[in-house]
Amino acid sequence: MNTQIELGGITKSVTTIEDLNHRFALLMVDGFASFYVTLPNFFPIKDSDLKRLLAPEVVATCKKDFLPRYIPAFKAWTENAGRLHIHKSKEEWDQIALHRVKMAALRAESMRWVAVAKFDADRAKALEAAQ
To answer: Would the pTM count as exceeding 0.70?
Structure first.
């Protein structure tokens, strides 16, 4: 949702539990404590980081006196039984973690090649300017 409201002089984006469920989940892995993850990449996120990410957002709840009531998105989502819960076995989590490591390695290699190409281009320009 793109609705903006002003609460206490601060502009906030109005979101829904459904929207938050497309972006975050509570992951439960057999044998481990549950933890929050971002979706779709299953990147673990601490409570404090999730709270910081959701700080500019609110969720509209039941109407009081025909006026909507807005609560912080972090509070609304973490205290809502309707938040997305994902169950994974340890083996499934290991596969997700391995995939994330491989993707990070590919990104790092790609960034290295970009840096090498930039260095070569800068060197070529310097040599050309020197002539």
So the answer is: no
User: Using CA atoms in the order 48, 49, 55, 57, what is the torsion angle rounded to 10 degrees?
Assistant: -120
Contact 59, 77 (CB under 8 A): yes
pLDDT along the chain (131 residues), means of 10: 78 91 87 85 88 93 79 90 78 78 76 77 80 76
Q: Which residues is 67 bridged to in the sheet? A: 64
Cis peptide before 44 (omega within 30 of 0): no
Closest CA to 24 of 4, 46, 56, 1: 46
52 in helix, strand or coil? helix
Q: What is d(CA 114, CA 112) in angstroms, rounded to the nearest whole number?
A: 5
Q: Where are the domains of the chain?
A: 1-88, 89-131
